[in-house]
Design goal:
The structure holds three protein chains of three kinds. Chain A is about 35% helix and about 15% strand. Chain A is α+β, with helices and mostly antiparallel strands. In chain A, strands 2-1-5-3-4 form a five-stranded mixed beta sheet. Chain A has a two-stranded antiparallel sheet with strand order 6-7. The longest helix of chain A is centred in the C-terminal third of the chain and has 21 residues. The mean pLDDT of chain A is about 95. By secondary structure, chain B is mostly helical. Helix content of chain C is about 35%, strand content about 20%. In chain C, helix 5 crosses helix 14 and helix 12 runs antiparallel to helix 13. The chains are: A alpha+beta, B mainly alpha, C alpha/beta.
Amino acid sequence: MTDHITLRVARYRPEKESEVTFQEYELPCPKDWVVLDGLNHIKDRIDGTLSYRWSCRMGICGSCGMLVNGEPKLTCATFLADYAPGPIQVEPLRNFPVIRDLIVELGDFMSSLTRVKPWIIRQVEKPVSEGEYRQTPEELDDYKQFSMCINCMLCYSACPIYGLDPHFIGPAAIALAQRYNLDSRDEGAAQRMEVLSEHDGIWGCTFVGECTKVCPKHVDPAAAIQRYKLQAALDWVKGFVMPRAAQ
Amino acid sequence: MSQQAAYTPYHPRWHRTRVSTWWWLGRWSYFLFILRELTSLAVLWFVVWLILLVRASIGGRPAYQQFLEWAGSPILLALNVLCFALVCLHVVTWFNLAPQAMVVRVAGRRVPGWCIAASNYAALAGVTAVVLGLLLMRE
Amino acid sequence: MAVTPAFDVVLVGGGGAGLRAAIAIAESAPTLRVAVVSKVYPMRSHTVSAEGGAAGVIASDDSLDEHCYDTISGGDWLGDQDAIEAFVREAPEELLRLEHWGCPWSREPDGRVAVRPFGGMKKMRTWFAADKTGFHMLHTLFQTSLKYSGVVRFDEWFVTRLVVDDGRVQGVIAIEMATGRIDVIRARAVILCTGGCGKVFPFTTNASIKTGDGMALAYRAGAPLKDMEFVQYHPTGLPFTGILITEAARAEGGYLINKDGYRYLQDYALGKPQQKPVFRSMELGPRDRLSQAFVKELEKGRTIETPYGPVVHLDLRHLGAGLINRKLPFVRELCLKYQNIDPVTQLIPVRPVVHYMMGGVHTDINGATPLPGLFAAGEVACVSINGANRLGSNSLPELLVFGARAGRAAADYAATAPEPNGHALAQLKDEQRRLETERVQPGGREPIADLRQEMQSTMEASAGIYRTAASLSAGVGTLRTLQERARDLRVEDQSRTFNTERIAALELSFMLDIAETIVASALQRQESRGAHQRTDFPQRDDHKFLAHSVAERQADGSCRVRYMPVTITRWPPAERVYGEAPPEGTHDQGMKDDRSHYAPRRAVPS
């Protein structure tokens, strides 16, 4: 039973250096500790200058995504003991610019989210006084999986297409669009299709499938994208063959 | 030793790692993905092969004999075996991924993924049986 | 020189209350310039961790008065009844509005919104989205807020101080975390939506970001804090991590058992154990009583010892895998991941953990504080609807109801308030100088983590579930010393770019101020009510203490506590009774003073 483990942590201090360096820290390794506990121990007891994001420590806020031995993981849900005897390499998420140490810049992702219009779009809104829109449990199940995304961006980190082309709108954004498209209360599929059928939308995806593999919430964004492609293709054919009906 | 940063107060430079041209060798899954995409070239080869075969058939017995001899040469044999393996990979990856792309409903219940994949394989087996039957049928 | 433009309304905090308020302003007053300033991206706000549900009267056999009565009695009569009546009336409407915005509420087979029972509630009125209600609510609110392109967001800006001049609030000063730039965001009105302060205690369900920032900002600016001594312990948190196991697990039928497998709550005036959950009885009793029962069991030696301290067990095995996977999937996931336990076949170890602050910035029924231009909504505020103890599933609708009210009230105020004057820039220069001096000064001697841990253990010892004058006075003294020591904090990181150590130091300073108000208020309240239990004053004293405690900062930095009356409308104070049906007509008449329902209390050795 290892009681100590070494963490090799990526450091980037833009005020002092222009490259990423690695720093090694040795820390205790109790069996209940996750990587985040290790980072907190480093910050509290060894090196207060280490910067990283975290909040809920229960895998629901999506703040603590990082690369652990090259794999995108939530550090609050990754146990140190699983990597014993180590060393464990901790780096910021791949495919994003690094601001500092383990913190990456999320601006592109935030604007992708807004672009897909992730809200209920309806021709006519029902007044609140008339009660809820009826939605059966089966209708809820249609989109439920895609509503589980915690915006942790592990999928963007795993996607080689996003790595090669940061303009690609990305798995989480498309899954979110699909979540609304499949919601029985929504009528905005056409508007979202306009955004997503652009070159950097769904057609950028080549179904590598890594996004689904790393998703901690089993959202399956790859499925969302492929289904969307099928839908887009069918809509195009319909628009071609029966232009009036497709309106 | 990392070089000194040119830092303007309140304007830190973000660090961007360049994606290497050999990114696809970095992970087993990326490598399999590229291989999967390349299998379309094997499919293209068999289309070309089919065209050559048809042309040889139209050309009569001597042209067909010539084609068979050429087909029997070690290089072509190796190429065809390799491409057959790649096409099999093509089929397997395609069928296994199909359930993710399609949601099929029967009587209100969602058909499970393995059913969709299995039905694709079953269809393949069926078509293969029919084609083999046609080819091996004696006059 | 301020780089940031001025706004009409600035919201500090981008969680449920902040986003609801922003949407309310964008809808009711679209010409106003609105900004949301949050130290984390909005979808990371702690609203995301809420699990159980949100209460709103929609069942045909339910009534607003019953929800009122449950909330008032749950709060041990310390809630302001006019605010509670408004809250109960507006909650269903707000939850429906959220449904229209796309919130995936769990449904009945016919498509109507489903409700479940919850602790302290007489009827089923808790709406839920599986067991990730807060997550779905927050994401729905955030995604809907993206519709309003006029709302400007300052993501990862840490507010260090409110700008107060001319007797009113004129903006906030904040650090842009990614660059270290310190700037002033001028505004006619500021709404605080920064949540609670669970991190003041060592053992909490709260995320690392819950450091009482807004409460401290208001306190330092001269706004009073109300009912700070009322700290809610949620009865079922996992040992070691403190992760929340939702009350819904008990609402669906889970049992709490001690080391003998005995459902011990029956010993504490919470009714008799039944197979199925009974409203307001046993495991569906109010959280304060359940947490107190744990302490009693611990004294009797009937809890289970683990390497992480004493626990009791939550038994969900009889519910079956089907129900657990359908209604409590997140609970199962958390137990498997963090305790290596499958609730379908094994018992879950749980213990009380700090969860919610009933107290906070004193506001009126529209979220306005006594300081002109300053508003507050959500957990940071104390309206008060939760009184001395909050019922589960009341805080999520609270975000919506009072977030919307505060938004509209701030918009009305800002429409006629004067523009911020030029003194904001002078205050900015002062704050810049203070923060920059601290940043580059050579290392102090007190490590932040050590001081933080000492504060936390002091709070647990002096202001835990049971308190005494001795423990509280000791706490007051220790916290004073910690405040002194905090002047010499060691901050190794002297950089500007995303300096989280500097942020931690600022948060610690906020927490120390808040901790002081908690113990000061607790020391002065010489009675036991709801979540505030004094072993030296074990009874409720409506004569002297049917009042809100109001903590104000004095010029010398100390905390003075005075009292403010509770608004009583239709429900005169009565005994809190759980475990059996209240006698006929209880919800609109007082009960006679009958103490036979209380379990005898024994002194806890401190």
